[in-house]
Amino acid sequence: MKTFPADFLWGGSMAANQVEGAWNHDGKGVSTSDLQFKGLHGGVTPRSAGDSCIKDTAIDFYHQYPQDIKLFAEMGFKVLRTSIAWTRIYPQGDEAEPNEAGLAFYDQLFDEMAKYNIQPLITLSHYEMPYGLVEKYNGWGSRNTIAHFEKYARTVFSRYKDKVKYWLTFNEINMAIHSPFTGVGLSGEPSKQEIYQAIHHQLVASALAVKACHEIIPDAKIGNMLLGALRYPMTCQPKDVLESLQKNREWLFFGDVQVRGTYPAWMGRYFRENNIELQISDDDLTALSHTVDFVSFSYYMSGCATFEPEKYLTSRGNIIRLIPNPNLKASEWGWQIDPEGLRILLNDLWDRYQKPLFIVENGLGARDVVESDGTINDSYRIDYLRQHLLQVREAIADGVELLGYTSWGPIDLVSAGTAQMEKRYGFIHVDRDDQGQGSLVRRRKNSFWWYQDIIRSNGAAL
Ligand code: BG6
Questions:
Q1: Mutation test of ligand 1: which of 318, 335, 384 has the most ligand atoms closer than 8 Å to its C-beta?
Q2: Is 346 in the pocket of ligand 1 (CB under 6 A)?
Q3: What CATH architecture does domain 9-456 belong to?
Q4: Dist CA 323 CA 302 (whole Å)
Q5: What does the domain layout of the chain look like in residue ranges?
Q6: Which residue ranges of the chain lie beneath pLDDT 70?
Q7: Cystine design at 33: which of 17, 62, 300, 440 (Cβ 3.0–4.6 Å)?
Q8: pLDDT in tens, 128-173
Q9: Is 417 in the pocket of ligand 1 (CB under 6 A)?
């Protein structure tokens, strides 16, 4: 049976704003994520002097990265996905020159990874942008932001061209329709017209980053990043099947533009029926023709779609609220666990795009208990990851081309959805609680040894 290829990229995935801390060190500017310290559902609270949040210091990766990279190397990581905080490079977003201290930090980080042959997989923007661009230009609501992003992308491509060969543009780009401030920096309650115009600007910027990456680092690969929001029809009634088609199109739209380089025809109907008239220039159309080299996505859960939503309760999800599948169990946070869904999604995306795929987030958020002897028996996490990886192996046997797998939060970090520490994903425990108390000491969980074995055997130990 076909299985994990010899050069399969095993590793972990995280984001600057959830691990680094040092939110205002070395010239870093305020980002949108710095303002969301009550979590995405808590809304945006403009910070004033004296306000603090667990993300301000997070797990102090900014200072402690050498020991963390060493632990990732001990597990055998081939790749580590993290992001560059845009505000470390351009603190307000529109400076003429980049901030050298910010650039130097990522030089050191990538050099540390190179010591252990860990490839960086770098997201240009993971749920953050300079707040300066929000104040001046209404975030992605303005066309001006495109040029500032392109300049930032060109700066980091030029600086790290010898160190980083795998890039992603925007994290979970489809999230903008559910959380516009997080995705496109729009405050208040923007209309659909405003949201899709901002999304259009971001899609153009993403394509211009692809173009720049191809020009500056010809041997690099650059991908998009989608939240894989797989929806099943609630029943086999044709109306439910149609509804699931529409719900899946809500997020596949982004992938279609980034992979095919044009807007899908069916989106025209959606825009007409919702009175959305986008301003799209000829230059925009040319820009969009720069398409990604691979498709990456996150996968945590699936959901159902129905034409009669009032008949069912919705469940807690990350940012999107879902109609639960009665056949599945859920995590402590209400996320429905569906390993087979990952095989289905991999096959669907491969059939649709015929581009190499990369699973860049997957994992279980759970509470861990540190035993009196310091051990952490996270068998539930091992079970979750094992079940999903078995389905990944099936998908590879089905013929899907897959570059790698980076589980979410290989070291405990601050959650994006709820700004908690106690919702843990890591193979490595960090001593810190929701109140910000703790020594920040790192401890290996049982899953650490399990994942090490999986990587060492290239998946054979599953
Ligand atoms: C993804 C995000 O949606 O889910 C991550 O890209 C996030 O940033 C992850 O951390 C898990 O969600 P949460 O809310 O548990 O942190």
A1: 318
A2: no
A3: Alpha-Beta Barrel (3.20)
A4: 9
A5: 9-456
A6: 37-52, 315-320
A7: 17
A8: 999 999 999 999 999 999 999 999 999 999 999 999 999 999 999 9
A9: yes
